[in-house]
Write a structure and sequence with these properties.
transmembrane helix, elongated, two-stranded antiparallel sheet, 24 helices, mainly alpha
């Protein structure tokens, strides 16, 4: 019942906020929500500069009134609430921030409307759980249900929003979590379909990419947009870090200054105002020039980073779709010129949306399904999956943190690992260190002692034959009391005093097996050998203990 209630509240809240968005756009731009760009283009230059400036003034004024900035895109705060704060979110602040975010986006802020809907849905779930005195686990789940329901109602994407909640917010596909989130998303979507609209957010032709050459191009696109996704995340973070360093007296006025810059740029590039729905739709339909397809994404990234860092509240999900769609459209247009007869650029714009979404969130599963539901174009699902997975892998290699976890890292909030235990656990090979010194079985006693005394504390000397095969270990402490008669030392060699009872480790052994082997000896290090008993290196007890999971 509570899950259904959260979905209902999130759906009604989303419908109300979207009504505010449309009313504000009609009031200031004299345009319908689905045709926002035409109203902006028809507006004189002074209005394009003035209205965003008024939006920045509104954010600044309210920040001064409440005594704290309204910055942030919300999703990172929701993740932090779930994992660190036992699901606690202040409802009044979320409602105020959501309303200001919607007004700012309607007045031209180059951010996404979804930030307001996610945060209000999540805060509603948190407030309901606290009012009923639920435990921390149930509160966390209701927060995730509310956030996912907010996204589902915002874009009419129940499946993708449910998986977004599981993959991004909760970091788990456990069946115990799947059911409640799906129910809340279904309820919220039903409400939005009754009160808002019942069709995909982007209505496009049925594109198909099945030729092997087109699948190869999708793979190349995934690689390129993986790098672009890392650039997007890095750009947002760098700008935020720079603006965090401004003087405290100037910080409240940053939204005003940032929106002023947005207004000036909009005189020449009106497509950058708002969440960019019309520009994305034009790219998906192949109705945008190559110049704009290349210029607008970089300009959008710059202005989005500026506004987000300055403290203008809003989402980064929709701007990432803008960024990916236009870069994908540019790639498709260039592909058409290089390979006549290729698929239309709009098809690659759709792939670009999914690739950048996967690359910035590091959540390829939910990215694929979100794009599929946003456009309803199932025939593109195979190349979409390919480009999304490749983009996420490349982006993760270049920028280990996602768009959301990077924000938390700047606050010194560390998220627990959500990768399964058996995947996190490294084997013996990962801890292998090379051997600094080794001796032959015929090495004289004086040489052995000199080498042992040169070794750092805790290291031992190993005896290997001409082929590098392990024969035994020489441990300084164990030599005490086991030396032959002093008169025979000149004739003693390494083979006479080596310990053949030290059992070596193989690279294929798991850490649990290595830990068990260390439990049988007092040595700080153990030798590692291959199947032919060739000495590969050593593993230290300290390195094994640092892993912490056996």
């Amino acid at each position: 019942m509570l899950v259904v209630a959260v979905g209902l509240i999130a759906g009604l809240g989303a419908a109300g906020l979207l009504k505010v968005l449309r009313f504000t756009q009609e009031l200031f731009w004299r345009s319908e929500a689905e045709d926002f760009l035409s109203g902006v283009v028809a507006a004189p230059s002074w209005r394009r500069m003035l209205i965003p400036l008024l939006g920045g003034a509104l954010v600044t004024l309210l920040s001064l009134v409440v005594g704290q900035p309204l910055r942030g895109h919300g999703t990172a705060g929701i993740i932090e609430s779930i994992w660190v704060r036992s699901g606690r979110l202040p409802l009044h602040r979320a409602l105020l921030r959501g309303l200001v975010s919607i007004l700012a986006v309607a007045m031209g802020a180059p951010l996404g409307r979804e930030g307001a809907l996610l945060s209000t849905g999540a805060a509603s779930g948190s407030a309901l759980a606290q009012w009923l005195g639920l435990n921390a686990g149930q509160t966390r789940l209701l927060v995730a249900c509310g956030a996912s329901a907010g996204m589902a109602s915002a874009y009419n994407v129940p499946i993708g929003a449910a998986l977004f909640g599981l993959e991004v917010l909760l970091g788990s596909f456990a069946m115990e979590l799947f059911g409640p989130i799906v129910v809340s998303c279904v309820v919220a979507t039903l409400v939005s379909r009754v009160l808002i609209a019942d069709h995909p957010s982007y209505v496009i032709p049925g594109y198909t990419l099945l030729h092997p050459r087109e699948l190869l191009l999708a793979l190349v696109l995934g690689v390129l947009l993986g790098g672009a996704s890392a650039l997007y995340v890095r750009g947002i973070n760098v700008m935020s870090d720079l603006l965090d360093r401004v003087s405290s007296w100037l910080a409240p006025f940053l939204p005003l200054l940032a929106m002023g810059v947005v207004g000036v740029v909009a005189v020449w590039l009106p497509q950058l105002l708002g969440n960019g729905y019309d520009a994305v739709n034009a790219a998906l339909l192949g109705r945008m020039s190559l110049t704009l397809l290349l210029v607008l994404p970089l300009a959008k990234l710059a202005l989005t980073s500026l506004c987000a860092g300055a403290g203008v509240p809003g989402g980064l999900f929709t701007p990432s779709l803008f960024f990916g769609a236009l870069l994908g459209g540019a790639f498709g247009m260039l592909s058409e010129r290089l390979f006549p007869g290729s698929a239309p650029s709009g098809a690659y714009a759709l792939l670009g949306m999914g690739a950048v979404l996967a690359g910035t969130t590091h959540a390829s599963v939910s990215a694929v399904l979100l794009i599929f539901e946003l456009t309803g174009d199932y025939p593109l699902v195979l190349p979409l999956m390919l480009s999304a997975v490749v983009s996420a892998a490349i982006s993760r290699r270049l920028e280990p943190e996602s768009l959301y976890t990077s924000v938390l890292n700047r606050r010194n909030v560390r998220m627990p690992a959500t990768i399964p235990h058996w995947l996190r656990q490294e084997g013996a090979r990962a801890l292998l260190k090379p051997v600094s010194k080794r001796v032959s079985p015929s090495a004289p006693f004086q040489e052995v002692v000199a080498l042992l005394l040169e070794l750092p504390a805790g290291e031992d000397l190993y005896v290997t034959d001409e082929a590098g095969r392990y024969r035994g270990a020489l441990v300084l402490d164990e030599l005490k009391g086991h030396l032959p008669d002093h008169s025979l030392l000149q004739a003693t060699i390494a083979e006479d005093i080596m310990d053949t009872q030290v059992k070596p480790i193989t690279p294929e052994m798991s850490l649990s097996e290595v830990a068990a082997r260390f439990a049988q000896t007092a040595l700080e290090r153990l030798p590692v050998v291959d199947s032919g008993r060739r000495l590969l290196g050593t593993i230290s007890k300290m390195d094994v203990l640092r892993q912490g999971t056996f």
